[in-house]
Amino acid sequence: MNIILGSGSPRRRELLTQLGVQFTVAAPDIDEAVLPGELPVPYVERLAVAKAHAIDASADALVIAADTTVDIDGQILAKPVDADDAGAMLRRLSGRTHTVHTGLAVRLGDRTVSEVVTSSVTFVEMADRDIEWYVGTGEPFDKAGAYAIQGTGGVFVERVDGSVSNIIGLPLDTLVRLAAELGVRLLG
Which H or E run includes 27? Predict the structure, then answer.
């Protein structure tokens, strides 16, 4: 089975590698702008499906695409544009619970299945100097919500409710199930 991961994310590559499947990577080039009035859940599902369809693949190739965002108070926290933006996002998350949504789309030929997985993350109270230190590590950049739970940012996570692989960017349990709906077994 030819499997294509439609993502340039190293975190998604690591997660898919954990399943032991062989795959190639093709990063789709799509406009990720939020549409006027678009809410976080429809946003990530729309992007995941668009990414899956932006990959040029043969009819027998399984294409996997995803998009992840952080949602606090119904507002999307995308990737920070600079250090000030990262600090502002982290201050907003400090001592609060937020949700992480990943839209996942799996395509085989002309059939596509998709789903959004949601997990909750609670942060500890973060002092300004802790935020400055973390932003200084460079890790918050290129991460939705300005943190990486699987990296140094995990030190600020008090509690997780739901799939950890979802928070990292590829909900593995859902991926295995969606692939099976298309007749593809990803395990063994």
Answer: none
H-type helices in 21-82, by residue range?
Answer: 40-54
* Pairing assessment for the beta strands 97-108 and 111-123 based on DSSP bridges: antiparallel
For residue range 19-64, list pLDDT tens digits in order: 999 999 999 999 999 999 999 999 999 999 999 999 999 999 999 9
Inside any domain, residue 83: yes
Catalytic residue from among 56, 60, 67, 110: 67
67 a catalytic residue: yes
Total structural domains in the chain? 1
Instruction: Identify the CATH number of the domain in which residue 8 sits.
Output: 3.90.950.10
Token pair of 93, please? 């998350």
Q: What is the DSSP string of 59-118?
A: TTEEEEEEEEEEEETTEEE---SSHHHHHHHHHHHTTSEEEEEEEEEEEETTEEEEEEEE
pLDDT digits (tens, 9 = 90+) for 127-170: 999 999 999 999 999 899 999 999 999 999 999 999 999 999 99
Is 28 domain-assigned? yes
Asked if residue 45 is part of any domain, the answer here is: yes
Global pTM value: 0.94
Give residue 18's domain range.
Answer: 2-181
Q: What's the rounded Cα separation, in Å, for the pair 77 and 88? A: 10
Structure tokens belonging to residue 7: 């993502």
Asked if the structure places residue 32 within a domain, the reply is yes
